[in-house]
Amino acid sequence: MIEKKLTLKQQAFADYYIELGNATEAAIKAGYSQKYAAQNTDKLLKNTNVSAYIENRMKDIQSQRIADQEEVMELLTAVLRGEARSAVLRGIGEGAQVIEEYMPPTTAERIRAAELIGKRYALFTDKQEINATVTPIFVDDISGDNNGS
Predict the structure, then answer these.
(1) Lowest mean pLDDT among 21-30, 93-102, 123-132
(2) Nearest residue to 24 via CA among 7, 39, 9
(3) What DSSP line would sit under the chain, residue for residue?
(4) In b/e form, how buried is each residue of 44-59, taking b as 16+ CB within 10 angstroms?
């Protein structure tokens, strides 16, 4: 599939639309006249090249902003191993506190990270998952009435 280029105005419109979420404002900031912006932004949004560009940019933005499973596992592993650092409030008496920078994770935080990693890899499951194909056999051992009749 050959991807068509956008004009500079169309690209600016799309970028402003992603930023602002308002098509009319985006069109005006991109350099379109107020009259055009008020009446024709739906045409810009329906333009296949513009809509494809917006969709691709949104996917890029989304993938950059949301942690993937590898990033989550790396963070949990760093906490578990005590490699992660964070700022912690520490009391110094008389109701005063100071911020301690670059403190290692507490034991509770490391245990929680271990639990989450263990849960991910099913290390602590009490139930066993068994897959089997079994055909039930029904035995009819009722031969009659138990009253002797």
Answers:
(1) 123-132
(2) 39
(3) -PPPPPPHHHHHHHHHHHHHS-HHHHHHHHT--HHHHHHHHHHHHH-HHHHHHHHHHHHHHHHHHS--HHHHHHHHHHHHHT---EEEEEEEETTEEEEEEEEPPPHHHHHHHHHHHHHHTT-S-SSPP--------------S-TT--
(4) bbebeebeebbeeeee
pLDDT tens digits for range 52-65: 999 999 888 877 77
Q: Which two tokens stand for residue 113?
A: 């990270």
Q: Is the pLDDT of residue 124 over 90?
A: no
Task: Say whether pTM exceeds 0.85.
Answer: no
* pLDDT given for residue 79 in this prediction: 94
